[in-house]
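To the structural biology subgroup,

Please find below the input and predicted structure for Transcription termination factor family protein, which we are adding to the shared reference set this quarter. The sequence is reproduced verbatim from the submission form. If anyone notices a discrepancy with their own records, reply to this email rather than editing the shared folder directly, so we keep one authoritative version.
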Amino acid sequence: MLLPIHTNCFLPLVYAAFPHKIQDVRFMVNNCAPTFTKYCQFGIHYSYYYYHHTTTRRRRSYCRSGMRDTVVSDWELQEGRIAVSIFLQQMGVSAEESKSIASNSPAYLNMLVESVRDLEHFSSSMLDANANADGAFNLNFNYRDKILHIAALKGDNGKLAYLESLGFTLSSSMNVARYISSAHTLLSLINKVTSIKQLLFPPAHTTHHYQLLIKNIRLIMTHLSISLDEDMQHTFSFFEKVQARRGGLNILASQDAAFRCFIESFPRILLLSLNNHISPTLDILQNIGIPADRIPNIILAFPPILLWNVELLQTRVLALNQIDGVDKDYAKLMLKYPWVLSTSIQENYKEVLAFLHSVKVPKTWTDRAIKRQPQLLGCSTSKLKLMVDQFAELGVQRKKLYQVITRSPQLLLQKPEDFLQVVMFFENMGFDKENIGRILARCPEIFATSISKTLQSKIEFLSRIEVSKAYIPLVIRKYPELLVSDINKTLPQRIVYFMKVGLSEKEIALMVRKFSPLLGYSIKEVLMPKLEFLVNSMKRPVRDVVRYPRYFSYSLEKKIKPRYRVLKGRNIECSLKDMLAKNDEEFAAAFMGVGKMLVCPPLSSHDKL
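Predicted structure (tokenized):
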């Protein structure tokens, strides 16, 4: 017969198995007493309602016993903690650590206290009903021994208390304990946890590395659109559980919190041998070039790797050789996209390759795109086709297509509606589809930017430097890269530089209107040396570049200086446009009376910068 005391599981009670001595007390149920040779079906249920609705910092708590709610006194909690500490020491834990565990496992302690209350209440009811005294719980029995008895009866040998002290909830502790109940003693579990945390969750792991990990996880959760194998399903379930918690994926930046989430979803890892399984796996990852301090990123991003045998891991790594150039740097791809080792991703690679080959994109270019944007590996071909069709409508096909894909592979991950919004942005400025296609082919990254945060702000910048609205499309057509330039640093610096050399805002606007690419030139490497040569060596006024801003596009050493030497040697004066815009034959015919450019005289010391 079973004793009806809030039971969720019934554990056979073997009196001789108790690690402590209980004297002068007997448990009897319908004349069935535990002995050295017979089992008595005696079970106790631990009610969790109370524990899930209290905080660990409260010194007073309430426990349920039957239909009664009573206050647990400080004395009960103090005595209970001492008893738990004693119990843990009997399991081989040091006195100091046992006290720490007992102090940090309040739900476990409350569970034991509540169970004692249940037994006391039951025994009291038996006495009130004049039941056989042999069937009663000794109400005068030492309180610590009662706690010790219940702790032993629970059967987890202190593992629940230890897991809770690590930050696991009581229910999570029970789930984890199911996997390790017979595989570990409490002491071996403590040693295993300590070793795993040192190997996989080192405190020296930098915040930057965790930020990259979290960024990559968010990307795959956003862009993955294929059927998943079992390992990937389990991994995504892990991500979703973490995401649902307070703090979301940022929890993974905390060593202790990341470990708890990791073990809750993959408790089998606690069963792995450190020497025969975990260490060899980590050695393989290091041998293929992954730095030791980045291995935690790989494991947290794709935990099933740790459950694979060494042969399977090696096979999956070698399969990456299908991607051109990856064999020279496995680590780079795996750090960006650890999921590349999964079955579903490796199979989808073949699908992506076949689709892009069908639209005339060579494998070499596809592999380049994948190495730059490995999220493509998790993108379904149906989704890829939607974007390729959008490009085709703008005339971007064949060679132009694979140039776009290689330069900005992230465009293939876009939603068509987001891409079309950028197309409409250009249409509203007066561009037709042909010119939009040219912009896409020349600077595809524009189409992956935000209209409000990036594109519109560049239009406003041009307006601020007095480029009229009518000329803005012309400026963009000549230099679409302007739309992805740094509006806070790069562009303003060019304007400030021109103003420092004496040009007005109106003159700068005129230069930009005539030749907008000058806004992309380096001040130190292009603008400054060419302007200094113009003023110091050629003795020309700065404002000559306002009339011909394309001057900055010519090579100083190969064109500007040689032609200046020819003109100076013949005492010829002409505009910058006449000097530089002509090809060699035209220049020779115009200024030298021959049909071919002559060898230029060497520079004098006066002409040198």
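Summary notes: The two ends are 104 Å apart (CA to CA). The mean pLDDT is 85.

Regards,
Lab coordination
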